[in-house]
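Journal club prep, shared notes

We agreed each person brings one worked example of a sequence with its structure written out as tokens. Mine is Precorrin-4 C(11)-methyltransferase. I'm keeping it raw so we can talk through how to read the token line rather than staring at a rendered picture. Sequence first:
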Amino acid sequence: MKVYFIGAGPGAADLITLRGSRLLGTAPMVLYAGSLVPAEMLSHCRPDAEIHDTAELNLDQQEALYRRAQAEDKDVARLHSGDPAIYGATNEQMRRLEALGIAYEVVPGVSSFTAAAAALSSELTRPEVSQSIILTRTSGRASAVPETESIASFAAHRATMCIFLSGQRLKQTVADLALHYPPTTPVALVRRASWPDQSVHRSTLGKMLDEVKQKDWLLTTLLLVGEALSREGGVESSLYAAGFTHIFRDGDDRKTKRASLQKEKQA
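Then the structure, token by token:
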């Protein structure tokens, strides 16, 4: 018997990994976070799977299901939204499984921050603009953010930031960002990335609050900010430049040098 923590992806039923889909198709018991994972994702499950929505269950009740699956020698697929490693609430489950002597495995998934970048058709890292991505969230009742990881302190780096759960504290989040980012900095709100009702709003840090109604962005909203989101030119990466040499390809300069050495040898 084994528990598989499977990243369900950001929402679209076809953004689960092949491995995750295969395991869902074989697991006799499935636990899924119904508040964040769409019901369409359950189409990957076997027809006779026993399915439980964990949005209605506390941790003790979930453990009881793991215990029963252990007694019945049934594998369990535990579906978490996005990737289980990011705000997955998996650590406490894993500790209980270890105490019960139940083996488990993690299957990674597509995170909502990468789905949001895809919705924006944006690369979050750009040469000489930003080579770092900060993933963080606003503080909430279920899990407070440490003071040392405040949005204002991260903003000082002026890197690309992807802020989860930002909708409910949009005004304060923008105020914290404005301590370090210029008002012209590109920003984007993405709600329910990859879902059929996905919403996207692009703007700048100084204008966004005047353009949106906070009530429209309360749940499952990501705020992305940083110069990397700009559509304007910038420096191209050297990776595919004609003159750039790496272990898989000679640049023009090296090709010319090799040709010259070859001619010298033949002379």
